[in-house]
């Protein structure tokens, strides 16, 4: 993010904090409600994020580029897709976790189509969430979602990856 | 949650015993990357906090429970795309909505777009993959969610 934009962003966050703070003082109901929501969501996000980023850091220093290229790169064939699908099952959190992890994989040499498959599989395959889903909605509901979406995610990721590679697309963090 | 920190802690300890320098470097990378996206995380939290005062259970029930199945389905897809909800809120809610007579097709569209499409995440996604890819990915996954919803509707005998 650019510096000027970043400063504006920080000011807005400060402004928000002040408004919510005042709301608590003058007992402004909507403000308090928003404040409570903020606390609730911050908790669910920030309880997870440090762990994820530490894992990303460890991955960056320990996993060799050649290993990722071999298993998830251009020559990995169909196997790479299955590896990331299984991998995504063991993850948790929202898409906000998927993006930095996907970017890290790409940075280490995973091919684009595999990276997009990871994001897609991540959004639907997380095991803890799947258990939740199946117990509230029934196993049939969950199976339909898996069976229909996984092949579609794989096919569309392959097409998107091919399209972007043809156009010499390069991913850049912080652009 | 516990297993995330169990695994992270374990890896960190092993890593530390093998190579202290490398481990410190890893932590430095973690912190740097985290700080870089921190403002965007805060933005997302603020937006969703404000959005959630409008999005109560009764509002969702009202919009997803329209008599016309097609309109409910489209509303569900749009609502799911523009909002975010953690899984531990979505599925208990969806479970309640089923008992209130909301169709599986509508709920499938809603929960699938919630998980796969994130308009609010676009600024964050953009900072990793660029705006073009962020938009294309969201459109493709939106279409997949439509297909998943329709097939759910067919299997449950709600359409055709």
Percent helix range of chain B: over 70%
Low-confidence stretches of chain A: none
Name the largest protein-protein interface in this structure: A-B, 70 and 71 residues
Q: Please tally the β strands of chain A and state the result.
A: 0
What general outline of chain B do the C-alpha atoms trace? elongated
Structural description of this entry:
The complex is a heterodimer of chains A (175) and B (160). By secondary structure, chain A is mainly α. Chain A has helices at 3-26, 29-46, 49-62, 65-72, 79-89, 95-107, 112-125, 127-137, 139-166. The mean pLDDT of chain A is 90. With 160 residues, chain B is an all-alpha fold. Chain B folds into two domains: 1-38; 52-155, no CATH class. Chain B is elongated, with a radius of gyration of 20 Å. Chains A and B meet through helix 1, helix 2, helix 3, helix 6 and helix 7 of A and helix 1, helix 2, helix 5, helix 6 and helix 7 of B.
How is the secondary structure organized here?
The complex is a heterodimer of chains A (about 180) and B (about 160).
Chain A lengths: L2 H24 L2 H18 L2 H14 L2 H8 L6 H11 L5 H13 L4 H14 L1 H11 L1 H28 L9
Chain B lengths: L1 H17 L1 H32 L5 H8 L4 H14 L4 H13 L4 H13 L5 H8 L1 H25 L5
Helix pairs in contact in B: 1-2, 4-6, 5-6, 6-8, 7-8
Key attributes of the depicted protein:
heterodimer; A: 175 residues; mainly alpha; 2 domains; 81% helix; 0% strand; B: 160 residues; 8 helices
Summarize, please:
The complex is a heterodimer of chains A (175) and B (160). With 175 residues, chain A is mainly alpha-helical.
């Amino acid at each position: 993010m650019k510096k000027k934009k970043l400063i504006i962003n920080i000011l807005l966050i400060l402004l928000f904090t002040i408004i919510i703070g005042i709301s608590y003082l003058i007992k402004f109901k909507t403000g308090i409600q928003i404040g409570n929501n903020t606390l609730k969501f911050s908790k669910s996000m920030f309880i997870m994020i440090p762990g994820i980023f530490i894992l990303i850091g460890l991955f960056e220093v320990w996993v060799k580029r050649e290993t990722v290229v071999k298993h998830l790169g251009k020559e990995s064939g169909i196997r790479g897709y299955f590896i990331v699908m299984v991998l995504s099952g063991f993850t948790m959190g929202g898409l906000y976790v998927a993006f930095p992890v996907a970017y890290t994989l790409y940075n280490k040499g995973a091919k684009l189509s595999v990276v997009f498959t990871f994001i897609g599989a991540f959004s639907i395959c997380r095991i803890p969430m799947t258990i939740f889903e199946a117990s509230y909605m029934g196993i049939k509901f969950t199976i339909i979602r898996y069976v229909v979406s996984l092949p579609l995610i794989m096919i569309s990721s392959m097409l998107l990856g091919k399209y972007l590679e043809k156009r010499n697309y390069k991913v850049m963090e912080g652009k | 949650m516990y297993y995330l920190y169990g695994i992270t802690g374990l890896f960190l300890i092993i890593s530390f015993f093998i190579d202290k320098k490398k481990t410190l470097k890893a932590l430095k990378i973690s912190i740097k990357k985290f700080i870089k996206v921190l403002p965007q995380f805060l933005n997302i939290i603020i937006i969703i906090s404000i959005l959630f005062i409008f999005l109560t259970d009764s509002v969702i029930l009202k919009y997803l429970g329209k008599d016309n199945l097609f309109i409910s389905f489209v509303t569900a897809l749009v609502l799911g795309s523009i909002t975010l909800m953690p899984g531990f809120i979505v599925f208990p809610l969806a479970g309640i909505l089923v008992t209130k007579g909301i169709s599986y097709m509508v709920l499938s569209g809603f929960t699938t777009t919630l998980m796969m499409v994130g308009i609010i995440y676009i600024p964050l996604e953009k900072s990793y993959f660029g705006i073009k890819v962020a938009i294309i990915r969201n459109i493709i996954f939106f279409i997949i969610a439509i297909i998943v919803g329709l097939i759910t509707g067919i299997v449950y005998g709600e359409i055709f």
